[in-house]
Amino acid sequence: MNIEEIEVRLGQCRVLGFDDDSSYQVARQLLRDTCDLVNRVKDLESENAKLKEALTPLKQLRDLYDSPEYRDTLIVWDLLTIGMLRKASEALDG
Quick check: 41 pLDDT over 90? Predict the structure, then answer.
Protein backbone atom coordinates (compact mmCIF):
# COMPACT_ATOMS: atom_id res chain seq x y z
CA MET A 1 0.00 0.00 0.00
CA ASN A 2 1.31 3.45 -0.82
CA ILE A 3 0.27 6.98 0.04
CA GLU A 4 -1.78 7.39 -3.14
CA GLU A 5 -3.84 4.32 -2.29
CA ILE A 6 -4.39 5.74 1.20
CA GLU A 7 -5.68 9.01 -0.24
CA VAL A 8 -8.09 7.09 -2.52
CA ARG A 9 -9.41 5.14 0.46
CA LEU A 10 -9.81 8.30 2.45
CA GLY A 11 -11.80 9.78 -0.40
CA GLN A 12 -14.02 6.70 -0.30
CA CYS A 13 -14.51 7.24 3.44
CA ARG A 14 -15.73 10.77 2.79
CA VAL A 15 -18.15 9.56 0.13
CA LEU A 16 -19.51 7.04 2.64
CA GLY A 17 -20.18 9.81 5.13
CA PHE A 18 -17.11 9.62 7.35
CA ASP A 19 -16.34 13.25 6.80
CA ASP A 20 -16.22 14.56 10.33
CA ASP A 21 -12.75 16.00 10.63
CA SER A 22 -11.64 14.04 13.71
CA SER A 23 -12.86 10.73 12.25
CA TYR A 24 -11.17 11.56 8.97
CA GLN A 25 -7.88 12.34 10.71
CA VAL A 26 -8.04 9.15 12.76
CA ALA A 27 -8.82 7.10 9.67
CA ARG A 28 -6.02 8.80 7.78
CA GLN A 29 -3.50 8.05 10.54
CA LEU A 30 -4.65 4.45 10.82
CA LEU A 31 -4.26 3.94 7.09
CA ARG A 32 -0.81 5.55 7.13
CA ASP A 33 0.21 3.33 10.05
CA THR A 34 -1.10 0.29 8.19
CA CYS A 35 0.88 1.29 5.14
CA ASP A 36 4.03 1.65 7.25
CA LEU A 37 3.47 -1.76 8.84
CA VAL A 38 2.86 -3.45 5.49
CA ASN A 39 6.08 -1.96 4.15
CA ARG A 40 7.98 -3.01 7.29
CA VAL A 41 6.72 -6.58 6.94
CA LYS A 42 7.85 -6.62 3.30
CA ASP A 43 11.30 -5.36 4.36
CA LEU A 44 11.54 -8.02 7.08
CA GLU A 45 10.47 -10.76 4.68
CA SER A 46 13.17 -9.65 2.26
CA GLU A 47 15.77 -9.60 5.02
CA ASN A 48 14.65 -13.04 6.18
CA ALA A 49 15.04 -14.43 2.66
CA LYS A 50 18.57 -13.01 2.45
CA LEU A 51 19.49 -14.51 5.82
CA LYS A 52 18.15 -17.90 4.79
CA GLU A 53 20.14 -17.71 1.59
CA ALA A 54 23.29 -16.84 3.55
CA LEU A 55 22.73 -19.61 6.12
CA THR A 56 21.92 -22.36 3.62
CA PRO A 57 25.58 -23.21 2.86
CA LEU A 58 26.25 -23.54 6.60
CA LYS A 59 23.31 -25.92 6.93
CA GLN A 60 24.66 -27.95 4.03
CA LEU A 61 28.06 -28.16 5.73
CA ARG A 62 26.39 -29.21 8.97
CA ASP A 63 24.51 -31.95 7.15
CA LEU A 64 27.77 -33.13 5.62
CA TYR A 65 29.90 -33.06 8.77
CA ASP A 66 27.40 -33.69 11.57
CA SER A 67 27.68 -37.44 11.44
CA PRO A 68 28.19 -39.79 14.41
CA GLU A 69 31.93 -39.91 13.78
CA TYR A 70 32.23 -36.12 14.25
CA ARG A 71 29.31 -35.44 16.61
CA ASP A 72 31.30 -34.99 19.82
CA THR A 73 34.45 -33.65 18.21
CA LEU A 74 35.34 -29.98 17.88
CA ILE A 75 36.03 -29.30 14.24
CA VAL A 76 37.40 -25.92 13.25
CA TRP A 77 37.93 -24.57 9.75
CA ASP A 78 39.18 -21.00 10.01
CA LEU A 79 37.18 -20.51 13.25
CA LEU A 80 34.04 -22.25 11.95
CA THR A 81 32.81 -24.99 14.30
CA ILE A 82 30.21 -27.70 14.01
CA GLY A 83 28.31 -25.85 16.76
CA MET A 84 28.07 -22.81 14.50
CA LEU A 85 26.83 -25.03 11.69
CA ARG A 86 24.24 -26.57 14.00
CA LYS A 87 22.98 -23.12 15.04
CA ALA A 88 22.70 -22.04 11.41
CA SER A 89 20.82 -25.20 10.60
CA GLU A 90 18.46 -24.74 13.56
CA ALA A 91 17.77 -21.15 12.52
CA LEU A 92 16.81 -22.30 9.04
CA ASP A 93 14.67 -25.14 10.34
CA GLY A 94 12.75 -22.77 12.60
Answer: yes
pLDDT at 7 over 60: yes
Q: Which own/partner contact pairs does 3-11 have at CB distance under 8 Å and 24+ positions apart?
A: 3/32, 3/35, 5/35, 6/31, 6/32, 6/35
Q: Is 85 exposed, middle or buried (0-12, 13-18, 19+ CB in 10 A)?
A: buried
Q: Which pLDDT belongs to residue 76?
A: 53
Tell me the C-alpha to C-alpha distance, in Å, between residue 18 and each of 6, 12, 33, 69.
Answer: 15, 9, 19, 70
Q: For residues 76 and 27, give the distance between their C-alpha atoms in angstroms, rounded to a whole number.
A: 57
Q: How far apart are CA 88 and CA 69, in angstroms?
A: 20
61 vs 41, higher pLDDT: 41
N-terminal to C-terminal alpha carbon distance within the chain:
29
